[in-house]
Write a structure and sequence with these properties.
- By secondary structure, the chain is an alpha/beta fold.
- Helices cover 34% and strands 19% of the residues.
- The protein contains seven helices and ten strands.
- The strands form four sheets. Strands 3-2-1-4 form a four-stranded mixed beta sheet, covered by helices on one side. Strands 5-6 form a two-stranded antiparallel sheet. Strands 7-8 form a two-stranded parallel sheet.
- Helix 5 (123-133) crosses helix 6 (141-149).
- The termini are far apart.
- Its EC number is 2.1.1.63.
- This is Methylated-DNA--protein-cysteine methyltransferase.
């Protein structure tokens, strides 16, 4: 059974989904790749996972996320190494993520989880990391882009921190306006549809 509820955020309403004690989905209502409602969905606003999610989103949108990343950098790295299927803890909150996808998609989402608050990475860089991990010489940035676009847990798996090779803001399932708002919240400077000085900042290691 999948429990669902509607969550209010400063950027609009979102649909959250949870299976057992893990968050399996978080989508802006009406976004691209919004899931089809099935008979397995049961609305339960009071489900404990959603109570934690609301606190987690309040924490993020209040601007406290940056400090949390600094305080928990070492612990976060250790948690991420365990992998999505083991349950990844979000800093400061007892919330675990369980996105459903292919092995390739999960490999991409693992990398997204390692992008620090306020930092960005390009699709090409993610492709290089995937290729290296798989012993390949190249990997399609377009394939990476598709996996990023199908991320089922917006904000918490931060696909909004992925940009084009020239710093350009490319598509975001929730809408480019929301991607801009999230990056500005995290302190990124934008000019029209580009991130300024992104290549002067460290990304994930």
């Amino acid at each position: 059974m999948t429990y669902t509820c509607t969550v209010n955020t400063p950027l609009g309403k979102m649909t959250a989904a949870a299976v057992q004690d893990k968050l399996s989905g978080l989508w802006f209502i009406g976004q691209k790749h919004y899931p089809a409602v099935t008979s397995e969905w049961t609305e339960n606003r009071e489900y404990p996972v959603f109570e934690t999610l609301r606190r987690r989103l309040d924490f993020y949108f209040s601007g406290q996320e940056g400090q949390a990343w600094e305080e928990e950098q070492a612990a976060s790295t250790e948690r991420n190494a365990k992998g999505i299927m083991a349950g990844i803890s979000v800093p400061k909150m007892d919330l675990y993520l369980a996105p459903v996808g292919t092995d390739f998609q999960k490999a991409v989402w693992e990398i997204l989880l390692q992008i620090p608050y306020g930092k960005v990475i390009t699709y090409g860089e993610i492709a290089q990391r995937i290729a290296l991990a798989r012993g390949l010489t190249t990997m399609s940035a377009q394939a990476v882009g598709s996996a990023v676009g199908h991320n089922p847990i917006s904000i918490l798996i931060p696909c909004h921190r992925v940009i084009g090779g020239n710093g350009k803001l490319t598509g975001y399932a929730g809408g480019l306006d929301k991607k801009k708002a999230l990056l500005r919240l995290e302190g990124r400077f934008l000019l029209k549809n580009k991130v300024l000085c992104y290549n002067n900042l460290s990304t994930i290691k």
